[in-house]
Amino acid sequence: MTDLQGRTFTLASRASALAQVQTNGVAQTLRALFPEATFATSFMTNVADRNPDATLASLGSTAKEGKALWTSDLEAALVDGQADLLVHCLKDVPTTLPEGCEIAAVLERADPVDSLVVKSGERWMSLDELPKGSVVGTGSVRRSAQLRRGWPKLKVLGVRGNLDTRLAKLDDPNSPYSALILAKAGMERVGFSERLTSDPPGTKFPYAVAQGALAIEIRSGDAAAKVLCARLNDTDTELTCAAERACLQVLEGGCSLPVGVVTNLSEDGELEIFGCVTSVDGSEQVECTVRERVSTAADASAVGARLAQGLIEKGARKILDEIRAK
Predict the structure, then answer these.
(1) I need a labelling partner for 14 at 20 to 30 A (CA). Which of 215, 231, 311, 313 fits?
(2) Is 324 annotated as catalytic?
(3) Could you tell me where in the chain the CATH 3.30.160.40 domains are found?
């Protein structure tokens, strides 16, 4: 048994309000589970935070670089010993980690869907109700592609910033935005549930890989941190996210590529995962579904890899290559 007595563990994350809420929540849980140890927090900005007006695609010239925008500075602190546990939104974590780093826990997943948020004072309740030509804001290539495919009557305009900033841009009477599409889990975690208008149907708006799940990244040789993480890990979430991330890894996708999933795990261990890749203009979409019984993360990863191969066989590679070329 690893002795935790007297050790101080530093939990680190981004400095955004959402990241701080998430990290403080994990720290509070650990303090209750391990009163013999001390838990501190540290919050850092990253490349994307320091360039709030730049598009994510411009900051990361490749999908892998785009993902690393959110994690590379934190991982440097982890490797250097300035932090012991990194608290990430798993959807922002590259599928390949730096040497010496590993995901040691995946916490129970919140609702992974995207939600519609309309301008304050307006009464629209769904994307279907928005008048023709209404502007919907999002910083996600996936969401933009899905909006253009499912609701071609609407206009899509980029928007970046933390949740407070984006909501302020939405509600500004002089802004062009009629609504935003945001992750439901993040809005709920920071106490903005009352702003959620509705959830677009999952069949038309599959969510991002691992959206709604938090992950804890540690140094590979830190046995004490592994003991902590073993108490935090949620097996069902680990399995579903393993399948989704394996699919993304085979596709070599990232946060700037339009890959969407919907995953369900039954009580008897049958994993069903739907995946799609959508062209940026919404004109093309390839889809595939795989079902298989799983019991380990390796099983689930194999299912995700099969899904990716199915998508490739149906034309996903062509769509992704065209996006990368642009």
Answers:
(1) 231
(2) no
(3) 234-326
- Active-site entry in 101, 241, 255, 276: 255
Q: What percent of the chain has pLDDT over 90?
A: 84
In CATH, the number for domain 114-195 is 3.40.190.10
Beta pairing, strands 135-137 & 177-183: parallel
Among residues 14, 67, 109, 142, which one is catalytic?
Answer: 142
Catalytic residue among 14, 67, 89, 92: 92
Higher pLDDT, 27 or 72: 27
- Residues whose CB is less than 8 angstroms from the CB of residue 15 and which lie 6 or more positions away in sequence, other chains included: 43, 44, 45, 49
In the predicted model, is pLDDT for residue 58 greater than 60? no
Question: Boundaries of CATH 3.40.190.10 in the chain?
Answer: 1-107+213-233, 114-195
State in words which class domain 1-107+213-233 has: alpha beta
How far apart, in whole angstroms, are the C-alpha atoms of residue 287 and residue 260? 9
Answer yes or no: 91 catalytic: yes
Exactly one of 14, 67, 91, 195 is catalytic; name it. Answer: 91
| Per-residue confidence (pLDDT) for residue 61, from 0 to 100 | 47
Least confidently predicted of 36-50, 153-167, 183-197: 36-50
Domain 234-326 belongs in CATH node 3.30.70.3270: no
142 catalytic per annotation: yes
Whole-structure pTM value = 0.91
Strand ranges across the sheet with 101-106: 38-44, 8-14, 85-89, 214-219, 101-106
